[in-house]
Amino acid sequence: MIELIPAIDIINGQCVRLTKGDYAQKTVYSDAPADVAKGFEESGFSRLHVVDLDGAKSKHIVNDAVLRDITTKTSLTVDFGGGIKTDQDIEKAFSAGAKMVTVGSIAVQQPDLCFQWLEHYGADRIILGADVRNGKISINGWKEDSNEDLLPFLKKYVDAGIRNVLCTEISKDGTLAGPAVALYQRIMDAYPELHLIASGGVSSIDDIRALDSAGIPAVVFGKAIYEGRIDLKELINFSKS
User: Of residues 9, 52, 69, 89, which has the active-site annotation?
Assistant: First the structure.
């Protein structure tokens, strides 16, 4: 059964969603992210994906206080990303209660540092963020595209021991246009040992069923919940079926 991971994206301490990573296309859903997280926990979820969008843009963690608020008020297993660029950033995230961190831009720009983190913290605490636009890995809050092609980029980290990968198809993110199932299948065909987390475009339970049928291990979703496209009780029942 596919692992279900709701998402909270943070700007200025608020729970928001962007469209295709565009900071100019922002919708605010709550001024209290910890309350949103509590609602997810009460609905039956055990895992949460938190993104510090201010941090991604600023290239250092900004909303660690919000992370701490979430991890203090819930018992959710939280993975946290956005702005993790230094040893100080990663320690700040773990100190604020994150069980795992997602590293993306730094994995492109300073792979040796990421390899050190992987060895030091272990493969169960590091998630590789592989956010894709036009086949290239995107970095720095999706403001820039690197020269890294997806599959060779992943191979470098699979060879180094990475087991958790979060892949966002940026053109799908926040659009409610359906996930990039074929992209995720291509990754799983190449690296079946990965715990791949699909992200971007989920609009309904049918989309999640399609990912599950395709053998994708996990999925992150947010906007579909905030916009009322997915009924949480129905989703939890699906996860138990």
Answer: 9
User: What six digits make up the tokens of 141?
Assistant: 């809050």
How far apart (Å, rounded) are the C-alpha atoms in residues 172 and 200? 5
The single residue of 131, 173, 207, 212 carrying the catalytic annotation is: 131
Amino acid at position 161, single letter? G
* Max Cα-Cα span within the chain: 44
Q: Do residues 83 and 39 make contact, with C-beta atoms less than 8 angstroms apart?
A: no
State the pTM of this model.
0.94
Distance CA 235, CA 58 (A): 35
Q: Is 68 exposed, middle or buried (0-12, 13-18, 19+ CB in 10 A)?
A: middle
- Is residue 9 among the annotated active site residues? yes
The secondary structure of 69-89 as a DSSP string is: HHHHH---EEEEESS--SHHH
Q: How many CA atoms lie within 13 A of 229 on its CB side?
A: 20
- Asked about 131 being catalytic, the answer comes back as yes
Tell me: the pLDDT tens digits for 218-237? 999 999 999 999 988 889 88
d(CA 124, CA 160) in angstroms, rounded, equals 13
